[in-house]
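Instructor's aside before we start: the two examples that follow are unrelated to each other. I chose them only because their records fit on one page, so don't look for a connection. First example below.
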Amino acid sequence: MIDLSWLFHLASLFPLDGMDMRFMQQALVALVLLAPMTAALGVQVVCYRMAFFSDAVGHSAFAGVAIGLVLGVNPHISMPLFGLAVGLIIMFMQRFSALPSDTVIGVVFSAVVAAGLAVVSRNNTIARDLQQFLYGDILTMTETDILWLLALFAVFVLFQIVAFNRLLYASTSGIIARAHRVPVALFEYLFAALLALVVMFSVWGVGVLLVTAMLIVPAASARNFARSAGGMFWWAILVSLSSAVTGLALSVQPWMGTATGATIILVSCAWFVASVVVSSVRNERQA
């Protein structure tokens, strides 16, 4: 296994009580890797109007974990693979079905949730094991999970370098993008696959119930703060990273004692409130 001790040593330098413990270091590293990915993909989700898509993929975690437990497969393998399959199926059906995209997503969403509940209802032990994925717990991230996150982060950075402008172009006008020889279908499938994997990893951290908020809230805040697409991208990363680190710091305080995922989203929502105020003041001055 790759030695990550240097990375955890850097995390231990963060001025927060408890950072001398390995699980806290792993949680901080995981959040620093996850936050930029969810922020950047959240901007693209907002541009593509795919919030419901991410919600459907997030809820497929139940079925992925349940099927993995029944088959004796590690849930950390079965869940992302199942989520990836669901994301690609939704994208395929959107492209080749005459139905509206939200209808297609609604059908797949219903199917994966029903499949998960059907499997869980047959085994009470599985139901107990699923509690972690319902609420999430970033403090349970292992060194192996960090390695997978590092690999995913590398793929994410490469994809954004190659595809960010092309996806922005396609979201504005797919017809014009194709006329300029942008392989829209290829980039859309790659985007759906990457989004599905990031959502699955985020489920481990903040849970199924809050995973969509981790994508949407920073992007919505960034839209209020920024004046350009590039500005929105960097504002989203700032909001997401600061929310993640602040949420972790607050949640482990004895006087707070709240779930880390929920605290992260609450801090992110505070950013959104601030962004609404800033946007309102700006609009009044321009009026």
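Example two begins here.
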Amino acid sequence: MEIEVTRPKQFADMARDYHLLVDGKEIAVIKRGTTQKITLPEGSKTLKAVIDWCSSPEFNVCDIRSGKIVLKNSFGSNFFKSIFLPLYYISLGKNRYLKIETGI
């Protein structure tokens, strides 16, 4: 299965890359503001995005309908969250720091 992965330009994490894991193995490095086409290995079950010690929840490959996903941090699009929640997201919420969404 081939998917298109988009990472929007967000202020947070602008100098760091996201690593995309399929079933626990790294298959791609996603840079800020880019879109990449990635071929998933046959029989893939889960996707996960990782940056440093933070990550996204596991995302089921079968939930990808359009063949497109978006990787972004959880608070980058909300001004109030970006002021008040970064400490939460890098400590207790470290497994929810990134989001994987379907479609564009």
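The chain has one domain: 2-102.
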